[in-house]
Specification:
Layout lengths: L8 H4 L3 E5 L8 E5 L2 E7 L5 E5 L13 E3 L2 E3 L6 E2 L5 E3 L19 E5 L2 E5 L19 E4 L3 E3 L3 H8 L5 H4 L18 E2 L5 E10 L3 H6 L5 E11 L3 E8 L4 E12 L2 E10 L7 H4 L1 H14 L20 H14 L2
Antiparallel strand pairs: 1-10, 2-3, 3-4, 5-6, 6-7, 7-8, 9-10, 11-18, 12-18, 13-14, 14-15, 15-16, 16-17, 17-18
Helix pairs in contact: 2-7
The protein binds FE2/S2 (inorganic) cluster and fe (ii) ion (FE2).
FE2/S2 (inorganic) cluster binds next to loops.
Length: 330
């Protein structure tokens, strides 16, 4: 199968998370999005800037250079580029001779939201969704570092919308002893621009799970929603009978067709007494279980509706795949 994500115009026109905000500082860093190398740094106004990580002079990696007065300086011959891609300085140029017009680079769009840096390689066709809890002072936000998963972002989003793997993949965490049948899935718009469904479950509640749920006892009742925002963002909301709410944003970014960045963001309205790292131990363990399974699957998830068999319980991921295929195939 040829590349179906890399180079796709519709995906280039969407925002993708490529770094945590706190990773981008004075020193440039290199990321890869949809097969394209990007250099990130902060300019003089502390804004995140993104340029192709390829100098227009001899293709050196700008990410190996340095930030000088808010511009990035190439490590090879010292050409400098501003955040908007303008080549501002060519040390070897004859005085008075202007910079060649083709020296300028086409800047990428970069923005920050939810503690993450998002890049759009083209023209943003849709805004990022909202998470109301992000501006609610009764909630705290917990970010995690980006990981590289050797699997396609298509398989990740499909997995994050799929609840029927819980009793099999998540036996080490919350899936143990869980019902294998799932309630009827009624799809529709959710808040914040997400699309999905609401359901209720009784989940296993032992060990790290008791920290996540804030309750003891072997089994805990959860009211949940599961939804997506194209192309690859998935969100789960969990409400316990105590009023404790836990929002989980699962972020998948195609590095290329079969390699991806993964990060998750948690919002919680607990009393903030349990350290953030402890709160997310359970989510981390769940993510590791998904990663182990997904890295055994080959290639990109087929996006047509005929090459895979699905059942009623797969309705949400099937709908996500239908919408993604419509987006990708234009
Ligand atoms: S390759 Fe960048 S300045 Fe020469
Ligand atoms: Fe999972």
């Amino acid at each position: 199968m040829g590349a179906i994500l890399c180079g796709n115009a519709a995906l280039r026109n969407r925002w993708h998370a490529v770094a945590r905000s706190n990773e981008v500082g004075g020193a440039p860093i290199r990321r890869t999005l949809l097969g394209e190398h990007v250099v990130l740094w902060r300019d003089g106004q502390h804004r995140v800037s993104a340029l192709p990580d390829r100098c227009s002079h001899r293709e050196a990696k700008l990410s190996l250079g340095a930030v000088k007065d808010g511009c990035i300086e190439c490590p090879y011959h010292g050409w400098q580029f501003a955040a908007d891609g303008t080549c501002t300085h060519v040390p070897s140029a004859t005085p008075g001779v202007p910079v060649p017009p083709k020296a300028h680079l086409a800047a990428h769009r970069a923005t920050e939201k939810f503690g993450l840096v998002w890049v759009c390689l083209g023209e943003p066709a849709a805004p990022l969704p909202d998470v109301a809890q992000d501006s609610d002072p009764s909630f705290r936000r917990i970010n995690t570092d980006l990981e590289v998963w050797r699997t396609s972002a298509t398989r990740m989003a499909d997995n994050f919308l799929d609840i029927t793997h819980f009793p099999f993949v998540h036996v080490g965490t919350f899936g143990r002893g869980q019902e294998t049948t799932v309630p009827k899935v009624e799809l529709g718009p959710l808040d914040g621009g997400f699309y999905g469904y609401a359901y209720e479950v009784f989940a296993n509640n032992e060990d790290a799970g008791t920290v996540a749920s804030g309750q003891s006892g072997g089994v805990v009742h959860r009211r949940m929603t599961s939804g997506f925002s194209l192309p690859f963002l998935c969100r789960s909301t969990i409400e316990y009978d105590t009023g404790l709410a836990h929002v989980l944003l699962l972020v998948s970014t195609p590095i290329d067709d079969v390699t991806s960045y993964f990060s998750f963001v948690v919002w919680r309205n607990d009393d903030f007494s349990v350290p953030a790292d402890e709160v997310i131990v359970f989510d981390r363990a769940i993510g590791a279980e998904d990663k182990r399974m997904l890295e055994t699957l080959d290639g990109v998830l087929p996006l047509d509706q005929t090459s895979l068999v699905s059942v009623q319980a797969d309705k949400c991921s099937v709908e996500w795949r239908r919408q993604l295929a419509a987006l990708v195939n234009g």
